[in-house]
Amino acid sequence: MNKPHKKLDAWTTAIELAHQVYQKTDRFPSKEQYGLTSQIRRAGVSIPSNIAEGAARQTKKEFVQFLHIAKGSLSELDTQLELAVRLEYLGPREWTTLNELLERVDKMISGLIRHLGAKS
Prior knowledge:
- By secondary structure, the protein is an all-alpha fold.
- The chain has a single domain (7-119), classed as de novo design (two linked rop proteins).
- It has helices at 9-25, 36-55, 60-86, 92-119.
- Helix 1 (9-25) packs antiparallel against helix 2 (36-55), helix 1 (9-25) packs antiparallel against helix 4 and helix 2 (36-55) packs antiparallel against helix 3 (60-86).
- The protein starts with 8 loop residues before the first helix and ends with a helix.
């Protein structure tokens, strides 16, 4: 199986973000297991998943479409993490770690979109 997504720094960093999300949400209250914890994890997993799916598509246009979906999931995750901070489920240090990864992934996806757009 050809796995072009594994060559992308955006995917690698997004996988690290998803991993961190799982680790940090593991400490959320059990009452949030089917609420905020689940939402945050789904958004976190969606980002590298959409990068991977887009990389496997046949055209650059399709790839870019999936990258935009990944960016939407990034915004969703950012919003959910902000709520987790306000609810005091995440401390400042945890938030900083996740936010730095969010910013890195966002810049990488944006750069990839620009790169692919310039080649179309």
